Amino acid sequence: KKEDEQRVIAMMPRIIDNFQMFLRGLRIEELQGSHGLYRIKEELLVRVNAAANPVKIKDVLFKEMLVQ
Fold first, then answer.
1. What pLDDT, in 10s, does the model give residues 2-59?
2. CA-CA distance, 5 to 27, in Å (whole number)?
3. Which residues lie closer than 8 Å to 15 by C-beta, 6 or more apart?
4. What is the per-residue pLDDT for 47?
5. Cβ atoms 55, 8 nearer than 8 A
6. Quick check: 47 and 22 in contact, CB under 8 A?
7. How far apart, in whole angstroms, are the C-alpha atoms of residue 50 and residue 43?
8. Are 58 and 14 in contact (CB under 8 A)?
9. pTM of the model as a whole
10. Which of 6, 42, 48, 49 is deepest in the core (most CB within 10 A)?
11. Alpha carbon distance 2, 44 (integer Å)
12. d(CA 12, CA 14)
């Protein structure tokens, strides 16, 4: 919803921190293949919904993914 946008923007530091903590703990093997990417996307969706509660996020969009 349009009114939820400001709430999500206000929660972005918490959301980003939560994402970074999860992503730092991943191993390269967990990123391989479409199954790995799907699992990561689902986990990020769970985490963003927990951080943005009661706002309901429907999807996570990857704009860029860098693996080092």
1. 788 888 898 899 999 998 899 888 888 888 877 888 888 999 999 999 988 888 999 9
2. 33
3. 8, 47, 48, 51, 52
4. 92
5. yes
6. yes
7. 11
8. no
9. 0.79
10. 48
11. 22
12. 5
